[in-house]
Amino acid sequence: MKALFDRAVRWWRVLSSPSRYFSLGFLVAGGFIGGIIFWGGFNTALEATNSEKFCTSCHEMRDNVFAELKSTIHYSNRSGVRATCPDCHVPHQWTDKIARKMQASKEVWGKIFGTINTREKFLDKRLDLAKHEWARLKANDSLECRNCHAYKFMDWTRQSQRAVYVHSTALAGNEHTCIDCHKGIAHRLPNMEGIEMLYGAPIEQISSSEPEGPSAK
């Protein structure tokens, strides 16, 4: 036991006063290599949690919102350009992405305690979950939408008259943003009674007799 303690003391002295044992060049090179390994490992782990495979690894997402996404144009379309879960729910900029990951860490708590581990629980929480995401997109000016859809590059000749009117009116200034009209763009809507949507966007969805709301196209 004493030998083990003496060895620990010697190693502590080496670590606490490394310059007595190693050259400055060795320390710099070691720190540089260690930094690369740490940063590479951190980003690898970050990207692993930023994939559709990871998002749908739990049945709560796979059996509910991901199943709904499959029926929309964001999942399958003529051009083959598909939006995945992180494309819409995780910012692309690194600092914003880290902040979002920290915010989403509380979802682990929900997973552990089974907050939405059944279809019934998910439907009961659907409106609250949707409101959180709508508020986030409203606050960041629908940043994830704008990563792919740019107002200044819209071709008005290929849009319906109603779409041209709404886009040119709502998006021309800074008062409104994408999520104000497109709340049901990739998933079924909850009961929308009392929820504001611009330009009558949800009328056909609110009037549906289907309790969960129809799939948004």
What is the fold's blueprint, element by element?
Elements lengths: L1 H15 L7 H25 L3 H4 L3 H4 L2 H5 L15 H5 L4 H11 L1 H7 L6 H21 L3 H4 L14 H10 L32 H4 L11
Outline:
The protein has helices at 2-16, 24-48, 52-55, 59-62, 65-69, 85-89, 94-104, 106-112, 119-139, 143-146, 161-170, 203-206.
How would you describe this protein?
By secondary structure, the chain is mainly alpha-helical. Helices cover 53% and strands 0% of the residues. The protein has helices spanning 2-16, 24-48, 52-55, 59-62, 65-69, 85-89, 94-104, 106-112, 119-139, 143-146, 161-170, 203-206. It is elongated.
Kindly, what is the distance between the CA atoms of the first and last residues, rounded to a whole number of angstroms? 70 Å
What structural class do helix, strand and pairing data support?
A: mainly alpha
**Count of individual helical segments:** 12
String of helices and strands: HHHHHHHHHHHH
Summed over residues and divided by their number, the pLDDT gives a mean of 83
Q: Please state the CA-atom Rg, rounded to the nearest Å.
A: 25 Å
Uncertain regions spanning at least 5 consecutive residues: 202-217
Which strand-content bin applies to the residues?
under 5%
Share of residues in helices: 40-55%
Oligomeric status: single chain
Tell me about the largest β-sheet: none
Query: What is the overall shape?
Result: elongated
What is the tally of beta strands? 0
Family: Belongs to the NapC/NirT/NrfH family.
Subcellular location: Cell membrane
Membrane topology: Single-pass membrane protein
Keywords: Cell membrane, Electron transport, Heme, Iron, Membrane, Metal-binding, Transmembrane, Transmembrane helix, Transport
